[in-house]
Amino acid sequence: MKSDRAPGAVHPIILSGGSGSRLWPISRSYHPKQLQQLVSSHSMLQDTALRFDDLQRFPNPVIVCNHEHRFIIAEQLREVNLSPALQILEPVGRNTAPAAAVASLCVQSYDPDGVLLLMPADHRISAKDAFLAVVETGAIAARAGHLVTFGIVPDRPETGYGYLQCGEKLGGEKLAGFTGATILHRVVKFVEKPDLATAKSYLEHGGYFWNSGIFMFRASQFLEILGRFRPQMLEDCRAAVALAQRDLDFLRLDEAAFNRCESDSIDYAVMEHADNVVMAPADIGWSDVGAWDSLWDVSDKDANGNVLLGDVIATATSGSYIRAESRLVTAVGVENLVIVETADAVLAVPRDQAQKVKELADMLKARKRPELAEHQRVYRPWGFFESLASGERHQVKHLMVKPGGKLSLQLHHQRAEHWVVVSGEAKVTRDTEVHMLRENESIYLPLGCKHRLENPGAAPLSVIEVQSGAYLGEDDIVRFEDIYKR
Fold first, then answer.
1. Which of 152, 214, 284, 453 is the Cys-Cys partner for 210 at CB 3.0 to 4.6 Å?
2. pTM value surpassing 0.85
3. Are 67 and 90 a contacting pair, CB within 8 Å?
């Protein structure tokens, strides 16, 4: 791949690998918080990418993501008219240091002097112009040979964030190559999430900033420093990229090599050990929106301090976040509560205990509850399906197939299916037959037949699928052809 920018461009690298378990039941492992509309009419991933929509200043972003999310991420970027320069697929999560390494290796291959702006996909930044201004400062420092982090000016003793302790101010003659007006600081140390008393002392003492998890550096320099402190990690990442396979518009890292790679954050692996880390203070309206209480913080509230979303009726209620996704939710006489309803789950938690939702998610995982992983609406590269009803030996689903989309040519060993077209035009393959179906027409697919559903039209295709059989699990699929290479 070649870059269409001058050497040494700032390359946005968007990390989209988290699961957001503290925002369950909206955030789920197959459709996590960065892919949800939580703080605007766009998903958090879309908001992050749109910060760099001035393509005269930035190349298209590089996305590092879980392979399970690849199609929905590609679709969400298409919806906002952005195309990633590269979409790197991780076979397994290995935290931010390996993600930064593989992104650095890829960018370095087409821009040896490239500067990486590494940022999570799930952070809110409300002051875009201020953010871009501090990025310009960071780029100058990064090109001058520094590893740059962005420290958020704290406005409260927060226990949910890590901190940066900063030392001497750097500017002008103290920072080689730096001629900007904004002052930077040397980073003395990275500090773990503190207890409340310690967090209060940080604010009283001064010199402490929230660790935003946003970094800038030259790709070549990061790789050199990573090789110094974590040589095996770098070797495994090099192998994962060297053996990577192109898959449609994706770069699929080699599974064996990346699985061998140690999992660690960029803070622990590099930043805490390097002696050239500087911090740019960033007053940019930042929040990591990590839990329901922080989402309440950044949301618009009514006169009673409530955030009411969806079909919600509340009386004598204050300081609460109430969200209805699929039905009416009512509340009477509650204070400082989070209530979140989806089609298959309801969460109720005091707002000041929102961090404990992760413990609940761990319990769901231990009990192998499917509600942790997927919503009733499950997205696929061809569209989505959602479960409408199920019982003994039967299940009813709604399928939406995008224009031009097609399911794989497949068969089932343990179930038969009946498709009814609700709207749109369907092309159905059944063994050697091909049928064109329109609204209110249907077809029966007996157990064991090869079949495929396609949408040859210009409008979405809506189909009701009735399954019957001894076993109705999604793993009863034998694929013969699949344009999405699943």
1. 152
2. yes
3. yes
Strands of the sheet with 451-454, listed across from one edge: 433-437, 426-430, 451-454, 409-411, 478-481
Return phi, psi of residue 142, to 5°: -65, -45
In angstroms, the CA 310 to CA 296 distance is 15
Cβ-proximal residues to 280 (8 Å cutoff; 6+ apart), any chain: 134, 137, 138, 141, 148, 149, 150, 151, 182, 184
End-to-end CA distance of the chain: 24
Task: Render pLDDT for 190-219 as a digit per residue (tens, 0 to 9).
Answer: 998 999 999 999 999 889 999 999 999 999
Q: Is the pLDDT of residue 471 over 90?
A: yes
Q: Mean pLDDT over all residues of the chain?
A: 93
